[in-house]
Amino acid sequence: MTAQTAIVAGGAQNLGEHLSLRLSEEGYNVVVADLQGCKAETVAQKISNSTGNKTLGLETNMTDEDEVKALMVRTKEEFGTVDLLVYNAGVARSTKIDNFNLSDWQMTLDVNLTGYFLCAREASKVMIGQGSGNIVQINSKSGKVGSKHNSGYSASKFGGIGLTQSLALDLAEHNIRVNSILPGNLLESPMFQSLIPSYANKLGIDEDEVEQVYKDKVPMKRGCTYDDVSNAVIFYASEKASYMTGQSINVTGGQVMH
């Protein structure tokens, strides 16, 4: 059986690196696409050393139309198919609305929403031609519940859910499924850690108290892990989820239930 090919957009570090490695372990040829090209190549080499499966690291700006087109062309040339796109690229700026810079707002929408649109559009062209495919967006619980001091991030993630549903309707007739995964707080991730000072200020507490506050918000009393997210991605990309499309699946330990 020929191995399937997965592109992980934003796949060179943190959750993206974990997803890239996990997909290779599941038997996929993995294209690690990231703005940081050197890191993408490093992760690709790590995958090769770890699993021996085919892989490729490519520097790609997900907000650049020509670079995204080139990513799909190179993947198809190298591996023949684009079976799975995981859109994991994302940025966050935590600032109260009266001090939120337009440039930060625009960058957040560009990366989190427009980049998803471009990658999904170009991947869908290949998938339509081959008669099948899967697209999974890594969204956030902030895509269903507004987030204080995170207006740009939350707006981009709400938009991502609407885009996922619309893509699912566009592509169902081509045997292409589109779903979003909504993780809870990835407390150990560098993105969350970078926001701790602003969260401490927002909550009026010490920085070393922030993580516990966020754990206490979760019925299961822990943060979301990279494995929690990758398990959901693997499931929704598999035939076990063959009747599921247009869904936005919470992986939040019960913190968000709708």
Structural features, described:
The structure is a single chain. The chain has about 260 residues and is an alpha/beta fold. It has 2 domains: about 210 residues, NAD(P)-binding Rossmann-like Domain (Rossmann fold), CATH 3.40.50; about 35 residues, no CATH class. About 50% of the residues lie in helices and about 15% in strands. The protein has 8 helices and 7 strands, in the order E-H-E-H-E-H-E-H-E-H-E-H-H-H-E. It has a 7-stranded parallel beta sheet, sandwiched between helices. Helix 5 links the parallel strand 5 and strand 6. Helix 1 packs parallel to helix 2, helix 3 packs parallel to helix 4 and helix 4 runs parallel beside helix 5. About 45% of the residues are buried.
What's the arrangement of secondary structure elements?
Elements: E1 5-9, H1 14-25, E2 29-34, H2 37-51, E3 55-59, H3 65-79, E4 84-87, H4 102-130, E5 133-138, H5 151-171, E6 176-183, H6 190-203, H7 210-216, H8 226-237, E7 248-251
Parallel strand pairs: 1-2, 1-4, 2-3, 4-5, 5-6, 6-7
Enzyme class: oxidoreductase
GO biological process, one term: bile acid metabolic process
InterPro entries: NAD(P)-bd_dom_sf, Sc_DH/Rdtase_CS, SDR, SDR_fam
